[in-house]
Amino acid sequence: MKSDRLVTGRAQIEENLQTIYDYRLGSNDERKFHRGRIKNDKNFVARRTSEGWQFAPSKFSGYAANNTSHMNKLDDRDGGVTNNRITEILGGPLCRGDSGYNEVDEAYCEYTREHGFEPSTHRQGRKYWVL
Fold it and tell me: What is the 3-state secondary structure (H, E, C) of the chain?
C-alpha cells in the first residue's frame, strides 16, 4: 500500500513496540487490538526493560508510525517484507534452538498469561528480534 512506509531505523521499531505495549492498558479497542496481535502472531520484536519484557509483532513493528488506525490494513500487509526490514536493521531473529531463545519464549508465554490469554501455537515456533 502506498501509504505504508517501512521503518528505516531502530528508533521507529522501538516507537512501534512502545505503542502496542501501551495499548495493553488503553481503551477497550486498544486492549482488544493488543491481545489479538500478541496472541496470534509468531514473529516478534522483544525488549527487556526494568519493568519486564515487551513484545510487538513484526508485522506491526515493521511499518513506520504504526497504530490502531492501520488495523484494517493488516491483512493487506506482508509480514515477510517487515521481517526482512527488521533483520536489515537489527540482525537475525532468535529461533527455536538458538542460545537465549528459551528465556525469551518463556517470557513471552508469561507475558500472555499476565494479560489473561494463552498464545496461539505454531508448528515452527516463534521468532524474536531482541532489542
Answer: CCCCCECCCHHHHHHHHHHHHHHCCCCHHHHHHHHHHHHHCCEEEEEEECCEEEEEEHHHHCECCCCHHHHHHHHHCCHHHHHHHHHHHHCCCECCCCCCHHHHHHHHHHHHHHCCCCCCCCCCCCEEEEC
Q: Which of 1-5, 10-14, 101-105 has the lowest mean pLDDT?
A: 1-5
CA atoms within 13 A on the CB side of 45: 31
For residue 89 the three cell numbers come to 536493521
Supply the angle between the helices 101-114 and 28-40 in degrees, to the nearest 10. Answer: 150
Q: Are the CB atoms for 36 and 71 separated by under 8 Å?
A: no
- Residue 14, all three cell numbers: 522501538
Contact at 8 Å (CB) between 17 and 97? no
pTM, two decimal places: 0.89
